[in-house]
Amino acid sequence: MERKYSVIVIGGGIVGLSIALTIQATGKAVLLLDKDEIGSGASFGNAGHIATEQVFPIADLSVLKSIPKMLLDPLGPLRLDWRYLLPLMPWLLKLVGNMRHKPFTHIHQALTTLNSAAFDAWLTFTQKWQLDDLVKIEGSLLVAENSATFDKLGQHSDYLNGIGVQNQLIGQAELLKREPALSSSQIGGIFYPHTGHVINLVELHEKLTQAFIQAGGAVLTQCEVTAIASTSNKDAVLTTTQGTFSGQKVVIAGGAFSKSLVKMVSRINVPLETERGYHLMLPQEYGRLKIPVSSMDRRFIMTPMSGGLRLAGTVEYAGLKRPANMQRARHLLPLAEPMLNEPLNSYQATQWMGFRPSTSDSLPVIDHKGPYIFAFGHQHLGLTQAAITAELVNCLIHEQPTPIDCSLFSIERFL
Ligand SMILES: Cc1cc2nc3c(=O)[nH]c(=O)nc-3n(C[C@H](O)[C@H](O)[C@H](O)COP(=O)(O)OP(=O)(O)OC[C@H]3O[C@@H](n4cnc5c(N)ncnc54)[C@H](O)[C@@H]3O)c2cc1C
């Protein structure tokens, strides 16, 4: 028997979950379904950083020069599984094309617009769903440990202040005052006040799911969408591992798995790849840091959480099917250790790998076409951009003007 909903959201990551809750709260009957559990994808293990200051695409020409060296280091911040080079090639070529001045500037401006709205959206979302115990808007740090890097941070800081991304360049004394656990090898950094972090992602997902159910929403887990078709009355019909469902609107928020879902409803071959990332969670290190600290030299982040200290980062191109290489997660420990004034306790540490959903231009797809709404491809910033994406999708569903220009995130840019 076919079950009918106003809106069906495919994908219970932070993006789909925020969208489902936001729309359900407007009184529409929403079904949220996921092939696994809610919050078990990339959203489960990210660094928890509401990183509104990250307004540049992941690929730029300055990084290009250091790529060969990075690729030769098996545990470096970037890894390519050479067996995956051929399938990756079309995406990679587009990524390199986007390093040209014009597309690069366009992407940078679009990210600046989106992330600036993302900060306000998180403040509103936190207040509306009473998330203050989980979402901390206390800022974050980007630190340097050699003088050339610190000089670069100085220029970066000036530039960002000039475009409205507020920050403060701080020397070592101020840095160590803010984070006394850092070692004196860290010579200074940038403090970003309009950023934050989530101290427990699992609890965040649980709280949002509870709010969604209380508002009347329906959740189905272990329910994989295997086919989508449009009907003559313009609804969409989903075939899933738990039967057939129809929706007046269907939101595709499947993270890194969205490409095949989009293919089911359009002829667009979205350049969506996964940039796999890792974390190492240190439960004994609760309280070591106060706010997230990223290292410009070491290219990873340490985030204080209620379950300990999370070390996270690295980019690995190896597709969605190859097994994780947990050595990359374990390598985060020797990477972090020299940054701190006391050795880290790795007793009972846990490791994890997740699939970042990355388009070749580092911008998400937030768009609509017939009964379909697209909300995926948030790359390194899905947590940061979840609340604003939910706001935008809500406007698209209710056919209201969006607070920012959604044409920047149109799916048609890939036609
Ligand atoms: C190591 C690491 C650190 C990161 N740190 C940060 C950070 O600090 N800040 C930040 O903003 N971002 C960060 N990110 C990125 C962030 O985690 C992602 O951008 C975000 O989680 C994407 O959310 P999502 O909801 O789109 O995808 P997901 O969380 O992956 O959710 C997608 C869901 O869709 C479901 N699904 C897929 N296909 C189907 C189907 N056919 N049928 C049913 N269900 C389906 C999946 O099971 C999954 O649960 C990090 C990522 C990694 C890997």
Shape: globular
Task: Classify the secondary structure makeup into a structural class.
Answer: alpha/beta
The end-to-end distance, rounded to whole angstroms, is 36 Å
The protein's oligomeric status is single chain
Largest sheet entry: 9 strands, mixed
Helical run tally: 12
CATH class of one domain: Alpha Beta
The number of distinct β-strands equals 20
Describe what this molecule looks like in 3D.
This protein has 415 residues and is of the alpha/beta class. Helices cover 32% and strands 27% of the residues. The protein has a domain at 3-126 and 196-269 and 360-414: FAD/NAD(P)-binding domain (3-Layer(bba) Sandwich), CATH 3.50.50.60. Strands 4, 6, 7, 8, 14, 15, 16, 17 and 18 form a nine-stranded mixed β-sheet that branches. Strands 1, 2, 10, 11, 12, 13, 19 and 20 form an eight-stranded mixed β-sheet that branches. Strand 19 and strand 20 form a beta hairpin. Helix 1 (14-24) runs parallel beside helix 8. Flavin-adenine dinucleotide (FAD) is lined by residues 10-16, 33-36, 40-43, 46-49, 51, 224-225, 253-257, 261, 277-279, 312, 354, 356-357, 376, 378-384.
